[in-house]
Amino acid sequence: MVLHWLVIFSIKYYNLVSLQKKIAVVIVLHGYIIGLMENNLYSLCKQFKTDKLEIGHVEYYESYFKPLRYEKLNILEIGVFRGNSIKVWSEYFANSTIIGIDIEKIDVSIFNSNKKNIEIHQGSQNDKEFLDKIISKYTKFDIIIDDGSHYPKDVIRSFKILFPALDLNGLYFIEDMQTSYNHFFHGNAFDLKYSNTHMNFFKHLTDSLNYQEIANPFYKKNVFDSKIKSISFYHNLVVVKKGLNNQESNIVFNNSYEKKLYLERVKQKGKTRFRYIFKYLIILRFYTFLLYFLNLLKKIILFRY
């Protein structure tokens, strides 16, 4: 938007001034455009040699981060390593606090001493006591990026601990999801559907987007239901967007399809009749209970409980 108006002003001004001033306008405009190009996320990743460039995450990050760039945010990255990506976030989000945590002790001298918005803490992403201290210090995070151990157990545990501290409209990024399919990273390449990998964890988490639609009267709402607005899957990257998701179902009432049918029929007829109770709350509910117990038995037999 700024560039748009600058160009318009420059064109109008350009038509009113002498040749010498026209040249000056062109030089200033050119310098401004070059400055913007050199300070975008792609250029910063290239400058600081972060691997986010070679693994192809930058274009996705840019699409999410561009509207937030000049906001005052708390940004947490799990996994500091050589600090390359921390430097990128520090430059890109100049008005934000960039918090890095790593299981190894990080030599803070690798960061420019002028970067006052970088704060580094040593601790494990699998350590609840440590993460609770980080949450206590910063209260809320607007963006969380997991670039830590990439082990399924660690990724899942830190997500469960940190998600409540994510701002209501916050973003949670999980990188290097390919380790879910690699047994050398404690993943599982042989049981893609039922193994306890972080990819399966986030696949199952998509049910929280539609928890209102689950026609199971025994369903118990979990901590993620109603708090996730979207889950996006990219190549080796998952993005969870937090937000209120409490829209009521149009076909289920309190996780019961038969109860919804019963209430609608009563509303249409204006009164309760025994045949409605018998049909919807006894016959159809019995069918639901039968399916529930058959599926429960199946899970027990196949050890999927």
Structure description:
The longest helix is centred in the last third of the chain and has 28 residues, at 274-301. The protein is built from ten helices and seven strands. Strands 3-2-1-4-5-7-6 form a seven-stranded mixed sheet, sandwiched between helices. It is elongated and about 80 Å long. It folds into three domains: 2-38, no CATH class; 55-242, Rossmann fold, CATH 3.40.50; 257-301. It is α/β, with parallel strands linked by helices and 305 residues long. α1 (2-14) runs antiparallel to α2, α6 (128-138) runs parallel beside α7 (152-162) and α9 runs antiparallel to α10 (274-301). It has helices at residues 2-14, 19-38, 41-48, 58-65, 84-92, 128-138, 152-162, 198-205, 257-269, 274-301; strands at residues 74-78, 97-102, 118-122, 141-146, 166-175, 228-234, 237-242. Helix content is 42%, strand content 15%.
Structural descriptors:
alpha/beta; 7-stranded mixed beta sheet; Rossmann fold; 3 domains
